[in-house]
């Protein structure tokens, strides 16, 4: 009987594979579900939480030390394929190591990734718990901000060439926060646009994230175009891009940041309308 119970206990213990996590958001999710100590290699920009800074570095999204990665002999590869170069993806696929893709197209899918990674790394209960908490936070934000008077917004993803977003999880955040993305009807997910096009769209708010790898966001000097409502009314806002752009646990904090910025702008415009 004791032998049978022991065998059953061993059978129900979740496997905890060693992991190489090759995108910052993947690292953040793994730590959130309790699998941070299983990460044996990661990329340069994976700097959160603080414990992640101690993980050995293997390169970045477009250049990896494949020899060192193979010597680590990971049992699981976790990364966002949409943020990884095609050449690196092909090399990783030849290793024969299981891969989990943490790419998302909607913010709701972040919770799904938490639950999945919890289950695949030996932390099912914690994964389910943090996924439920994320969904609750998301629902609360939507309840608070959806339905408010929309403001037109331009989101500056990159300064040169001037690049914005039109679809996917980022556009969803803008919409959920009561924003109308002025390039939501573009034909590509990240369209390159001209300043003339932005002037025609005449956004009321311009959002400008600063994040690792995009320290040159100030190359667009918006003050040169005072005819834009966002510029004329002081609504060119800098965001913490690392929180907003990493589709991990903190992206809901990034959404909260954007929603608050949009609400502040909404109140400012309302106050101007009510000024005699």
Describe the fold and architecture.
The protein is α/β, with parallel strands linked by helices. The chain has 2 domains: 91 residues, Nitrogenase molybdenum iron protein domain (Rossmann fold), CATH 3.40.50.1980; 127 residues, 3-Layer(aba) Sandwich (Rossmann fold), CATH 3.40.50.1980. Helices cover 43% and strands 13% of the residues. The chain is built from 11 helices and 10 strands. The strands form 3 sheets. A 4-stranded parallel sheet has the order 2-1-5-6, covered by helices on one side. It has a 4-stranded parallel sheet with strand order 8-7-9-10. The chain has a two-stranded antiparallel ribbon with strand order 3-4. Helix 7 links the parallel strand 7 and strand 8. Helix 5 runs antiparallel to helix 6 and helix 6 runs parallel beside helix 11. The protein is globular and about 70 Å long. The N terminus is likely disordered. Keywords: Signal. It comes from Ferrimonas lipolytica.
């Amino acid at each position: 009987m004791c032998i049978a119970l022991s065998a059953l206990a061993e059978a129900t213990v979740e496997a905890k594979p060693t992991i190489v996590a090759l995108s910052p958001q993947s690292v953040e999710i793994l730590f959130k579900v309790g699998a941070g100590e299983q990460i044996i290699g990661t990329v340069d920009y994976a700097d959160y939480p603080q414990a992640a800074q101690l993980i050995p570095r293997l390169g970045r999204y477009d250049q990896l030390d494949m020899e060192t990665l193979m010597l680590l002999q990971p049992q699981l590869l976790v990364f966002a394929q949409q943020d990884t170069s095609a050449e690196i993806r092909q090399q990783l696929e030849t290793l024969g190591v299981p891969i989990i893709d943490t790419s998302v197209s909607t913010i709701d899918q972040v919770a799904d990734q938490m639950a999945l990674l919890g289950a695949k790394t030996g932390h099912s209960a914690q994964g389910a718990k943090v996924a439920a908490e994320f969904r609750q936070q998301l629902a609360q934000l939507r309840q608070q901000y959806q339905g408010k008077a929309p403001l037109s917004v331009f989101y500056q993803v990159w300064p040169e060439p001037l690049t914005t977003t039109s679809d996917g999880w980022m556009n969803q955040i803008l919409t959920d926060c009561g924003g109308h993305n002025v390039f939501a009807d573009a034909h590509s997910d990240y369209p390159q646009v001209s300043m003339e096009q932005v002037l025609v769209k005449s956004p009321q708010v311009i959002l400008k994230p600063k994040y690792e790898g995009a320290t040159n966001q100030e190359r667009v000097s918006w003050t040169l175009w005072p005819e834009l409502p966002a510029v004329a009314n002081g609504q060119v806002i800098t965001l913490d891009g690392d929180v907003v752009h990493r589709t991990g646990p903190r992206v809901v904090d990034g959404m909260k940041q954007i929603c608050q910025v949009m609400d502040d702008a909404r109140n400012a415009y309302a106050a101007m309308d009510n000024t005699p």
